[in-house]
Amino acid sequence: MKKFAVVFMLVGLCASAAFAEKAMLSQGTKEVRLGGGIDLDTFADTRLDLQAGFGYFVRDAWEVGVLGGVQHDDFVTFWDLGFFTEYNFDLGHELVPYVGAGIYFSGSDIDGQSRSEAAIWEASLGGKYFFRPEIAIFSQLDFRFASDDIFDESNGDISDRELRIKWGIRYLFN
């Protein structure tokens, strides 16, 4: 029974690779994205995160663009706007891993009493799954470092570092 399951999985993988459509990662392609996340473990209840961006492939598999977003919970409202770059590893199937980096100008309003601005540097690891050559869902892990303490932690402290997971959808076009 185990051998049958392994053979069935291998045949399924080969068949899906044979019918995979080429992802649109070539030079000149444009991308619109909408994404975000949810964090259930913050100091002030649940945080919602929404981001929107536009990218352009300057070379095959290499994208640069602008990205803006807002996060909000009952304690902090946080916004950022800046530039990103991603390099996609096209392995010839629907799942495309990528690495990215970004630099953003950010601000936060903490409990309506204090405001803070900072520069943020971001390193990202992620993957896109293409349902069609022009439509993909993505999931991404961000490591963020700020020039000031602007990220709130689950224990109520404010930090200059953050680790977060984002997910969303991307639409690519020429």
What does this structure look like?
- The chain is mainly beta and 174 residues long.
- The protein has one domain: Porin (Beta Barrel).
- 10% of the residues lie in helices and 67% in strands.
- The protein is built from one helix and ten strands, in the order αββββββββββ.
- The chain has an eight-stranded antiparallel beta barrel with strand order 1-2-3-4-5-6-7-10.
- Strand 1 and strand 2 form a beta hairpin.
- The longest helix has 17 residues.
- It is elongated.
Features:
single chain, 174 residues, mainly beta, Porin, 10 strands, 67% strand
**Helix content estimate:** under 10%
Name of the top-level CATH class: Mainly Beta
CATH architecture, by name, is Beta Barrel
Using the alpha-carbon principal axes, give the shape.
elongated
Short description:
This protein is mainly beta.
Topology, element by element:
Elements: H1 2-18, E1 30-42, E2 45-59, E3 62-72, E4 76-88, E5 95-110, E6 114-132, E7 135-146, E8 151-152, E9 158-159, E10 161-173
Antiparallel strand pairs: 1-2, 1-10, 2-3, 3-4, 4-5, 5-6, 6-7, 7-10, 8-9
